[in-house]
Amino acid sequence: MSGKDGAVTVPLRDRVVAAQRDQDARTVMRLRLGVGVIGVLLPLALPLGNWMAARLDGRTGADAWPGSMSGAYYTSTRDIFVGALCALGIFLIIYRFNKLNDVMGTVAGCCAVGVALFPTAPPGADATESPVAVLHFVFAALLLISMAVFCLLMYRAPGIKERSYVRRPYLVAGVLILVFVALAIAAAATDIGDDWLITPLYLCEWLSVWSFGFAWTGAALSLAEDIGRLSRTRAVVGAVLKWLRSPGAPLGRGKPPTSEATS
């Protein structure tokens, strides 16, 4: 269809459909990024928050590392742990890609919320004697397994199969999560590392969540590139860094030399 000046005009219906698709793509990108950011930051935020809280209370912070990520429920970062898992669960539940991924996302999201709402047993207590702790263990195990399955399904998902730079991180993440889960089970069965500062269980959970988080962050950035959002983000970040490095800014190195000083 051509306008009065000979330019091609797009019908209103097609423009509405294109706008909806762009909005859907942006929503998926933000959901992926939300999942990725939580996965990347949470394992470090827990011990760092505990250490900062200990220092503010005048303690050494030697107990900043809980025995497991779930053990953070009984530390100063309980609210961070519960809030992050609930947010992760909501992101996964409302994430939509295809039918199979929708189901796995809902399962993983419900498990994440279950881990947050049903705390593990307190340190030194027998987890098998508490129904709540047993539920926590079930939800935690299902969460890790569903995270691995989710990544492996995304590796084979339509629209991603053709992009090796997106699908390979999903494959690597899925395999690594399964490996770390097996290592955590082996460490728990043999009592290896129970006296370490960072226990094998926490380390395996940390690396599993990191694998999941980095895969989703990469997928979000690739989608941002596809819909033309990454260039805008780069421009904004570049402008902020330029301002920070400018004279008089927080990272500036003083005022530039004047013409009188250089003459």
TrEMBL record:
Record keywords, A-Z: Membrane, Transmembrane, Transmembrane helix
Superkingdom field: Bacteria
Keyword Membrane appears in the UniProt entry: yes
Keyword Cytoplasm: no
Transmembrane feature ranges: 31-53, 73-95, 102-121, 133-157, 169-187, 207-224
Protein name according to UniProt: DUF998 domain-containing protein
Species this chain originates from: Streptomyces capitiformicae
